[in-house]
Amino acid sequence: MRKLLSRLLSLLLLCLISSAQSIPPPSSRSLDALLQDYAFRAFLRPRTGIPYHGNVPSNFTGIQITAMRLRSGSLRTHGVKSYNEFQIPVGVLVQPYVQRLVLVYQNLANWSSLYYPLPGYTYLTPVLGLLTYDASNLSATNLPELEIKASDKPIFIRFPQLKSLPQTSTPQCVWFDLHGLPEFSNLTSDNVCSTLQQGHFSIVAESSAPSPAPSPPTDEGPKNPTGGGEDEDKSRVWIIVGSVVGGFLLLVLLGFLVFWVQKYKHKNQMQQMEKAAEVGEALHMTSVGNTRAPVAMGTRTQPVLENEYVP
Ligand SMILES: *[C@@H]1O[C@H](CO)[C@@H](O)[C@H](O)[C@H]1NC(C)=O
Ligand SMILES: *[C@@H]1O[C@H](CO)[C@@H](O)[C@H](O)[C@H]1NC(C)=O
Ligand SMILES: *[C@@H]1O[C@H](CO)[C@@H](O)[C@H](O)[C@H]1NC(C)=O
Ligand SMILES: *[C@@H]1O[C@H](CO)[C@@H](O)[C@H](O)[C@H]1NC(C)=O
Fold it and tell me: What residues are in contact with ligand 4 under a 6 Å CB criterion?
């Protein structure tokens, strides 16, 4: 029982540590793999440079996917004027070199914040993904992504429409690399973000709810003009500090609980042992009484002695 408890405790600790670290949920990679598979299924006899819309399994209703096959030479020299929201300029290089590649487009729609949670921010657009794969085997699954790099001009993402903006916050572009790590940047213009690489993209605004740093207003004055980046870092630090302290408190509480449970158990055991001893004695007594009752009774009254005295 003690072993089980300590194991449970260490498991909890592990959970706490990993939850503090895992800002990107591991499932976004498996979603990429699943969507690659389903996007490739959209190709029957694919012509190059034509977008094909894929169907997602019913448990992912809402997500939209498109696949387009291209020669990598054509991508470099012509780019793609318009691939849904993406505008790919000339000069995009693919590594490692493949003859043909597939650009998989994802629109995560209402699944965006589930797969790319971003605490402290509100999504103003769905998360859009652009990922590159080797086109040499169109029935392959679990393909690794290729790397693409815009060398001349950046790739533009023209988001159709922003959700209404929370007051006092400015919209920012966010880019998630393949590990799910976010990186923020300024909008290129209204509704437009730019990137040199593939990944997942959206426009976010800081949500007004959390205002964690308890700093005097005199401090905030000179800090604001330097840019919002510092405030973000600060709020993230506070979130991490908060969760660590919270986790620690929880652990201490759990420790107390375990201690108390064990103490209680010990006490209970002692009581039971005492009880058992008592019962044992009682049984012993009764067993003696049962077998030797007449003898005992006889010795107690002892009429024989009286007779001895009388004569
Ligand atoms: C959704 O369905 C697909 C195919 O039916 C399956 O491979 C996948 O594991 C399911 N995912 C979830 C999260 O239910
Ligand atoms: C997204 O919307 C679709 C219906 O349009 C629904 O079936 C699906 O469950 C929703 N996904 C999430 C994560 O809420
Ligand atoms: C393509 O990939 C599928 C699935 O991984 C595999 O079964 C098949 O042998 C591959 N074909 C070629 C030509 O490599
Ligand atoms: C983003 O824009 C703000 C003002 O709009 C500016 O102060 C800041 O330097 C810009 N940041 C970057 C990384 O360009």
Answer: 186, 227
- Asked if 227 contacts 185 with a C-beta cutoff of 8 angstroms, the reply is no
pTM score over 0.70: no
Q: How far is the CA of 170 from the centre of ligand 3 (A)?
A: 48
Residues with CB under 6 A from ligand 1: 57, 59
What residues make up the domain containing 173? Answer: 27-226
Indicate the top mutation candidate among 100, 102, 139 to test ligand 3's pocket, ranked by most ligand atoms within 8 A of CB.
139
122 plus 4 within the same structural domain = no
Does residue 83 sit in helix, strand or coil?
Answer: strand
Q: Is the same domain home to 56 and 121?
A: yes
Ligand 2 centroid to Cα of residue 108, in Å, is: 10
Q: Is the CB of 139 under 6 A from ligand 3?
A: yes
How far apart are the C-alpha atoms of 155 and 151, rounded to whole Å?
A: 10
Question: Per the domain annotation, does 297 fall within a domain?
Answer: no
* pLDDT tens column, 215-231: 443 333 333 333 334 44
* C-alpha span between 155 and 136 (Å, rounded): 25
Residue 235: name the closest of 122, 127, 121 by CA. Answer: 121
Residue 284 included in any domain: no
Q: Summarize pLDDT for 159-183 with one digit per residue, the tens.
A: 998 888 767 789 999 999 999 999 9
Identify which of 110, 111, 114 to mutate to test ligand 2's pocket (most ligand atoms within 8 A of the CB).
110
213 found inside a domain: yes
